[in-house]
Amino acid sequence: MSESNKPKKKTRYINPYLGGVLLGLVLIAANFVSGRGLGASGAAKSVMVATVNTVAPEHAENALFYSEYNASHPEGPMKAWLVFQMLGVIVGAFLSGAIFNRLKFKVEHSPKITSRRRIIFAVLGGILFGFGSQLGRGCTSGSALSGMGVLSLGGFISMAFIFGTAFALAWFFRKNWI
Amino acid sequence: MGPLIINDIISQNTNFFLAFLIGIGFGFVLESSGFSSSRKLAGVFYGYDTVVLKVFFTAAIVAMLGLLFMSLFNWIDLDMVYINPTYLWSTIIGGAIMGAGFITGGFCPGTSFCAASIGKIDALFFIGGMFIGIAIFAEAYPLLEPFFKGSFRGTPTLPQALGFKDGVVVLGIIVVALGMFWVGEWAEKKFPREEY
Question: How large is the ipTM?
């Protein structure tokens, strides 16, 4: 691709710096209201615990991960700030997709790889992110971004290792993206 | 004044309702900035699209500065705001595993939900994988617990760890971020890209 092959502006995104300012204001609002930042993996964990509580209540009682969580959340896993926030995220993203004309079912991937390969790597990445976010007490939103917003040392470490590792491994997975 | 829920200014139900509204803002900003596209997100690791760098660090700076000023004006009591605890090694290894997940999967949890809600099927598979990952962690938890709860370093902030004032560290971060934005703009000019 050369300069002459300029992209057609089919999809319009907002200016990234404006997006950053708005995201920062959202993060401030979260702290102002709830005393905590944003998050995503925490809501996934709530859904996971709620599912196991319903489907396999015996396992939820016996397995340490679930029993510890349930003991510290007497009102139940779904009555959590992050669960309501994530429901909002789904609505907000859908609204943006509707306004900017991006609602479409598709498997997005580089033309050099197949949809099948993309999906296999998406599942693999999901497994790693799910596991890592539990070990690291939060993901890019909850640990890295929100942590940095309140200047937490842990937040900076989290950010450095998420982005640092992805950079370090980028060369090995370049075929999937470029 | 703030945080509202901790100072009992709002009820728990209002808090949850505001969480929903804040979530709408969060999802809207992520999607409209292009975070629903894995190819745009992964671009930061190859230099062809550095939207992640720009949005992420601008947001972090705005939040840091905003919270510092709000605390200066007594609008928020930062002592009541949650500071993520530092468990050194589980944060490092967890972060590294998440980084591997980012480059293979092309999403992080928040962006995968945004992408799925506008119809990206690969994002749905990522979310499915995420639940598998959480389940694996849950089953391995008895083995991992000592490591997970080990190397606890309290809840220091970066300025405390470095021994500088908050404002000085934030100024330093702003300078570093401006430098990274400059590199990002340069990289986008150097490496060809198309809009996804």
Answer: 0.96
